[in-house]
Specification:
The complex is a heterodimer of chains A (235) and B (623).
Chain A lengths: L2 E5 L2 E5 L5 H7 L23 E4 L2 E4 L10 E3 L3 H17 L14 H8 L23 E3 L9 H9 L5 E4 L6 E4 L16 H4 L6 E3 L12 H4 L2 H4 L7
Parallel strand pairs in A: 1-5
Antiparallel strand pairs in A: 1-2, 3-4, 3-5, 6-9, 7-8
Chain B lengths: L2 H10 L7 H12 L4 H11 L3 H8 L13 E6 L2 H5 L2 H12 L12 E6 L11 E3 L2 E3 L4 H12 L18 E3 L12 H9 L5 H11 L6 H12 L12 H10 L9 E6 L8 H8 L1 H15 L3 E6 L7 H13 L16 E6 L9 H8 L23 E5 H13 L1 H5 L9 E8 L5 E6 L4 H8 L4 E6 L5 E4 L17 E6 L4 H15 L5 H18 L5 H17 L3 H5 L2 H9 L1 H5 L13 H4 L1 H7 L10 H6 L1
Parallel strand pairs in B: 1-2, 5-11, 6-7, 6-9, 7-8, 10-14
Antiparallel strand pairs in B: 1-3, 3-4, 10-11, 12-13, 12-14
Helix pairs in contact in B: 6-7, 8-16, 10-11, 10-13, 12-13, 13-16, 19-20, 19-23, 20-21
Classes of the chains: A alpha+beta (235), B alpha/beta (623).
Chain lengths: 235, 623
């Protein structure tokens, strides 16, 4: 017999070992997330996927499903808290959606729309984050980095290269590349690397491919991020 | 650095990438910083990507991937140091040396900046020079330091009394008052064990980590459980349960159980572990050995905070003596199979590594980021092996329990808080230092003992603890009322409690590991809000913001650092509201942005500070 737990009043079946978010996405229920990706070990850092399990806040990407759990997710309280987290991510970096190549395909932007974010609310930090345009085929625009570490995990665990890593700590945390020069051109990154494909925002971009799909016809122009569940099919 | 000396450091640490951070520390102690050549050499020798080496090293305040000068001077920046005048002293030193805070002097000789509390609040203001603590800093000492830096006198030739660190013990109870004989705890426990079949059962339980019921280790565990010992790091988890869970955790092939002593005493205002390790190291190491005996561990670590690096040689000496006396090593005090040894791991200035899973990450040579839990360290700790992490004071108490029995111990203190607590008292009092009381002592009694007068507030258990106001001074120090890791900072009526809270908020923002969004960004937002109030731009709106941030930090943060970062602000708002109200100069929202302030960089670049270089109200009208 399949085991189940309750998510927002709905019964969700799960396989032993599945986390709450895995089971929810497989059942077609959207839980906002940014650092979670079904192909990688959960990281649990963005905290967007936080739900309430039996009344306590916990990240649904790291919490294992168990029979009989009472989980709240799509509530005004939790969505309000998630909205605040997205606002924090917006003011921490330099995000200028109208001029960003990733606009319409960006999970941060789509999640902000999903959660009804109307303003950044907090004062912007305006950090100084130079871009790395050294590579002939790829551009790194660190201004948009949300420190989800998906590229770090993909490069290390899938590509076996460790092209990317996180450095420093606290609000100074940032992405670095694996080269003495600190430049992407001097790493062994390749276009077909998984790490190059997974960025949920507009940090890792192909050069000379800008705006190939016109604004208005992009992933989240068609349907909001909750209607896509692109990750659910892969679960 | 010569390839030979790198070679010998690598050899000392088995060429293992898990020892990366200790290797980097030793290299830096020789060279002053970690050069690109070192990183390149280690990349090859350890087969670790350079980005990972740089990522780990840059996490820690005391590891440097850039030159920091022949003299690196760090002023302890706890509120207690500030009350002793540390800010003016640092400014004086900077002026004398012609350096800007935080910047390397142009000749590459010296850098001066601040660091989180160095654990010398009873004898501050304090600073670190190249990692060595200098206490009781005053103007005369600053002038003398500046002279020696300018003359490039080697640190070894600086006056020895500058580096003198006193114990300052003012009240002794069972721990600090004990004249503990090395080995006496082990022998007393051994004598108490039923002799029947002891050898075989000990060997079996030690080797195989068998569950309870076997005489030797089970006796130790029973004593600890009977004593009702609870962890002294602040959270107060029952020590016996932790040890038992570790002991019962299954071992995979090739795995061991691990005992870790958390001497990363980073909570500002706490310095008891410094004294325990200085004057009672045997008791601490014996407690670790007894813990190893109880859980069936063969390897132990002492995680020593970088600020206490000066204790390393002393502690290594104690360990060497204990090995000679058969209190460490193989078949300890002749019990066959009782094998255990301890390595010391020096930290590098990261408060978050006091969190047990972050500490374990750091032990493994990585960034000190707290882990996702479960699984917990008792089943999956150091290199995924069952691991117990306990506070220095907990291990010392365990040694006393082995010596005198759990029954003796449980009758000291209160019903839910057995034993004694060592308090690190600092701030506005006549006799700052250590006070050991049985649990259940009131705040007022401690204040009386240390000679505090006109006390306005006490911060118990550091910035992440509780701000206690005068009407609460009859409250008691114990897990039932005010639990504490040991800090006890006293503020008299002349102190501005807003500045106390602001100092603590800056501390949390500086020490956030940056892993999770709410803490990484939230602590910085909170710092900015407190600075906004400090700069006279506060309005009632900012109170709502603080409360909102507090909610997010408590609900969404990954670990205790984020959960407690708002505590000092909320406590002081509730209990010392006038300190905030006097800063609410505006009823309507006022932005933090200040045009005149924004021009300060331009003024500095042009060397101007005249009236026309300022954007005051009168000038604003003319624009």
């Amino acid at each position: 017999m399949t085991q189940t737990f309750i998510l927002d009043g709905r019964e969700i079946p799960f396989e032993p070992g599945q986390t709450i978010i895995q089971a929810a996405l497989a059942a077609g229920v959207f839980i906002p997330h940014l650092c979670y990706h079904p192909e990688f070990k959960p990281h649990g850092s963005c905290k967007l996927c936080t739900v309430k399990v039996n009344g306590r806040h916990t990240a649904s990407c790291t919490y294992k499903a168990a029979p009989g759990l009472e989980v709240q997710s799509n509530t005004e309280e939790l969505n309000g808290e998630r909205r605040t987290l997205v606002q924090m991510l917006f003011v921490e970096g330099n995000h200028f959606c109208p001029s960003c190549e990733k606009s319409g395909d960006c999970q941060l932007q789509a999640t902000a729309y999903e959660l009804g974010m109307m303003s950044p609310h907090f004062d912007h930090f305006f950090p100084d984050r130079p871009v790395d345009a050294s590579h002939p085929e790829l551009l790194l625009d660190f201004n948009r980095c949300i420190l989800c570490s998906l590229c770090v995990r993909a490069s290390r665990d899938v590509d076996g290269k460790s092209v990317f890593a996180l450095a420093e700590r606290g609000i100074d945390s940032h992405l670095i590349v694996n080269a003495a020069s600190g430049r992407l051109a001097d790493t062994n990154v390749a276009l077909e690397d998984k790490a190059v494909q997974v960025c949920p925002v507009g940090v890792i971009l192909r050069k000379r491919k800008g705006f190939a799909v016109p604004i208005g016809q992009r992933t989240y122009d068609e349907a909001p991020i909750s209607g896509h569940l692109p990750l659910a099919e892969e679960c | 650095m010569s390839s030979g000396s790198l070679e010998s450091i690598l050899c000392k640490y088995d060429g293992s990438p898990h020892n990366l951070l200790q290797i980097l520390r030793e290299v830096q102690e020789e060279e002053g910083w970690i050069t690109p050549a070192t990183v390149a050499a280690l990349e090859t020798a350890l087969a670790v990507p350079r980005a990972k080496i740089e990522g780990a090293a840059s996490f820690y305040s005391f590891l440097h991937l850039q030159p920091v000068g022949r003299y690196r001077i760090l002023f302890s920046d706890n509120i207690i140091d500030r009350m002793g005048g540390s800010q003016a002293l640092m400014e004086r030193l900077c002026n004398l040396l012609w350096v800007e805070p935080g910047k390397l002097s142009e000749d590459g000789l010296v850098s001066v900046t601040t660091t989180s509390c160095t654990g010398m609040c009873d004898q501050g203001p304090a600073l670190l020079v190249n990692g060595r603590a200098i206490t009781r800093v005053d103007e005369a000492r600053i002038d003398a330091i500046a002279e020696r830096v300018r003359a490039q006198v080697p640190l070894a030739e600086w006056p020895g009394e500058w580096f003198q660190v006193e114990d300052n013990v003012h009240r002794r109870d069972i721990l600090l008052g004990s004249d503990f004989e090395p080995g006496s705890g082990l022998r007393a426990l051994h004598a108490r064990v039923e002799t029947d079949g002891i050898q075989a059962s000990n060997t079996r339980s030690w080797r195989e980590g068998l569950p309870r019921g076997l005489v030797g280790p089970a006796t130790m565990l029973d004593e600890i459980k009977h004593a009702n010992l609870r962890g002294r790091g602040g959270a107060g988890f029952t020590t016996g349960l932790k040890w038992e869970a570790c002991r019962n955790a299954p071992l995979a092939d090739g795995q061991d159980r691990i005992v870790v002593c958390n001497a990363d005493e980073g909570e500002p205002g706490t310095f008891k572990d410094r004294v325990l390790l200085t004057s009672h190291a045997d008791m601490v190491f014996e407690g670790m050995t007894l813990a190893a005996y109880a859980v069936g561990a063969r390897r132990g670590f002492l995680y020593l905070r970088g600020e206490y690096r000066y204790l390393l040689e002393h502690l290594e000496g104690v360990l060497a003596r204990r090995r000679r006396d058969n209190l460490l090593g193989h078949s300890i005090i002749g019990i066959p199979g009782a094998d255990f040894d301890i390595k010391i791991h020096v930290g590098f200035g990261a408060y978050v590594c006091g969190e047990e899973s972050a500490l374990i990450e750091s032990l493994e040579g990585k960034r000190g980021t707290p882990r996702n839990r479960p699984p917990f360290p008792v089943t999956h700790g150091y290199l995924d092996q069952p691991t117990i992490v306990n506070n220095v004071e907990t291990f010392a108490a365990a040694a006393l329990i082995a010596l005198n029995g759990g029954e003796w111990y449980k009758n000291i203190g209160t019903s839910h808080s057995a034993g004694s607590k060592i308090l690190s008292v600092s701030g506005d009092c006549e006799r700052p230092g250590l006070y050991e009381f049985p649990f259940g002592v009131s705040v007022a009694e401690v204040l009386e003992a240390c000679g505090a007068k006109d006390t306005q507030a006490v911060q118990v258990s550091g910035p992440s603890g509780f701000t206690i106001a005068a009407h609460e001074f009859d409250r008691k120090i114990c897990f039932e009322d005010i639990p504490t890791a040991g800090a006890f900072m006293v503020f008299d009526k002349t102190r501005d409690m807003f500045q106390v809270a602001r100092n603590f908020v800056h501390f949390f923002a500086h020490e956030s590991c940056g892993f999770c969004t709410p803490c990484r960004v939230g602590t910085s937002l909170l710092r900015n809000l407190m600075d906004k109030l400090h700069n006279g731009q506060g309005s009632p709106y900012d109170f709502e913001e603080i409360e909102k941030l507090n909610h997010i930090l408590q609900a969404m943060s990954h670990c205790g650092l984020g959960h407690s970062a708002c505590n000092p602000v909320l406590d002081t708002i509730e209990k010392f509201r006038p300190a905030y109200d006097s800063r609410l100069l505006h009823q309507q929202f006022t932005p933090a942005f200040d045009l005149d302030q924004a021009l300060s960089q331009a003024r500095q670049m042009t060397g101007r500070d005249d009236e026309l270089a300022h954007f005051g109200a009168e000038h604003g009208d003319k624009q």
